[in-house]
Amino acid sequence: MITITWKRYIKDCQELKRKIKGFYKGIVIIPKGGLFVGAIVSQKFEGLPIIVDREPVGYKNYLIIDDLVDTGKTLKNVEGKIAVLYWKPKSIVTPDFYVRQYPDKWISFPYEI
Question: Less CB within 10 Å around the terminal CB: N or C of the chain?
Answer without folding.
Answer: C
